[in-house]
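User: I'm putting together a small comparison set for a docking exercise, and I want a reference complex before I start. The sequence is below, and the ligand is flavin mononucleotide. Could you produce the 3D structure with the ligand included, as structure tokens?
Assistant: Of course. I'll restate your input first, then give the structure tokens for the complex.
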Amino acid sequence: MTLELRTAGESHGPALVAIVMGLPAGLRLDRDAIDHDLRRRQEGYGRSPRQQLEQDRVEVLAGLRHGRTLGSPLALVIRNQDHENWAWGMSPWPPEGDASGKGTTPVTLPRPGHADLAGALKYGHDDTRHTLERASARQTAVQVAAGAVAKALLREIGIEVVGRALEIGGEATVEEWKHATDAARADRETLGGVIEVVSDGVPPGLGSYAEKETRLDARIAAALMGIQAVKGVEIGDGFALARVKGSEAHDEIRADRGRETNRAGGIEGGVTNGEPVVVRAAMKPLPTLMRPLRSVDLETGEPGAALVERSDVQAVEALAVVAEAAVAWELARAAREKFGGDALGDFLAAHTAYLERIGWPRNA
Ligand SMILES: Cc1cc2nc3c(=O)[nH]c(=O)nc-3n(C[C@H](O)[C@H](O)[C@H](O)COP(=O)(O)O)c2cc1C
């Protein structure tokens, strides 16, 4: 038994869609909690005006009755409210009438750092909008909705997952982030940063040792790398561990099987060890610059300036919410694999029986 997620949707198309498979029947979902996470994803200091245009709300088309999962596939939809401005340009069918609104002229100047050039070459597109609409991080909205569902399942077994920004543009405090973001906006620049996700209440034993498909550290790293603009991931002390001695790198085990330190970030041998799971991700500065970098016009072959389009100055706080969802998803998937069950009660009973067998929580 595992969880599966498939998504579809273009940034300015009619909607974003997710299908979630493998949830137990009987899990209570709270629409406000999902919408709350969608709102958190849209907040943050450096976001573009689009975030005011869109007020994301989840719709459920299947798999839920009276707020409880049915054990059948859960179909989630988030409408792109901005689509009305792109109705001609992003019409799924050949548009009728004269061209109007946004997205009516082809984009032929790929942005360095975005998927534009690679996608145009790979798929044979002469308009990089065919690429950038799907490559855009707009689709993280539906990932956040799926993550909110995963968090509801995890909460049933006492696991809480929280993401936060640690650094933006190399600065560490909220005031400094704002200054750095204002300065970057004035300079027509963009910024990156570092986020952290901490998961509490995770029992020992999620994940397994030997393969990238089963090692939880590998899976979490892939989940975080799977988010647009993430270019580095570390578990626990990560890169800093490479610079210390073994005696300073590992977490000694007490008689009650707890640890004084958590340099491993709660995962040893690919398996959770009962300490909080701590992971960090580094985000590069966003590629859409209001002072565009040099590029080439794919139509004429002439040098030109890259596409300029409405864009965030930085989205690090939003990444923290998306990363929280990604980690929650992986933990929920690992929990489904370990505890199984078609009904929520089966899942909870297996979890309880396992904790009894290993004598956990360790102080109980
Ligand atoms: C929450 C979030 C918001 C983003 N917003 C923007 C944006 O407004 N403009 C932009 O150029 N890139 C933005 N990005 C990053 C691009 O989507 C990303 O750099 C691009 O898809 C290329 O992928 P890569 O950076 O992983 O190579 C955002 C990423 C995330 C996670």
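The pocket of flavin mononucleotide is lined by residues 48, 113-115, 135-137, 140, 227-229, 284, 286-288, 311-312, 315, 318-319, 322 (CB under 6 Å). The domain at 131-358 is CATH 3.60.150.10 (Chorismate synthase, AroC fold).
User: Thanks, that's exactly what I needed.
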